[in-house]
Amino acid sequence: MKNKRRTFGITAALVTGLLLFAVLSLTNCTRIEAQANVPTPVGITGVGTQTAGRNILGEFAPQFAALNDDVLFGEVWAREAELAPRDRSMITVASLITSGSFEQLSFHLDFARQNGVTRAEIVEVVTHLAFYVGWPNAWSTFNRAIEIFTEADTAANEGEEITVEGQIGRQTAGRNVLGEFAPQFAALNDDVLFGEVWAREAELSPRDRSMITVTALITSGSFEQLAFHLNFARQNGITRTEIVEVITHLAFYVGWPNAWSTFNRAIEIFTE
Description:
The chain is an all-alpha fold.
């Protein structure tokens, strides 16, 4: 009787072991198959498939790393038909300058260079934004840009022509609104900011100036001025599709609340 019980116990243990092995094998095969079916993140111009998130934060913050690599770069940056990589780099740089996110700026300045933004254009972007975000942010940006946009870039880009897509008429809003109350500010607004800076169309087109100005206002939450500049951007050739993509792109850099507040104003201006 004892031998029969011992034999039965051994047989039961063997059967249990075999069943456990079969279950583990099936689970492993399913996991391998599932991993094989995960789509490869789409690459972006200049750097190919983005892996910086996982390389730096893969163990410490895996969810954030996945969102960085697969969603922000793998999906949003990859929508090149809606907004070109050059334009995405330009608005990203403008947003980082405005928010003072200088730790991330060096990477995006170099990325902008890879995506076709020239040294002359970057200089003009920073000069233009100085009036909207302040001289200290402009200086901090120039200190980093000098290291990235070298003399070699200047030589390579000599002779480039920038297409002018709009015309800036003489600005009188400053004097019309503040001519009596703040005449000096009104003169700087009309004669310097719009009369000189916005008028440098050969260095940076009105379309690009509108794009980076809208970016600065979205990033800083200056919504009172945003309606004017959204309409101005429309006049300067920015389409509804492009402005939607600009706001969607920036949502990852400035936050969803600022994006929503911008959409509420854009809907009124970019109508059917």
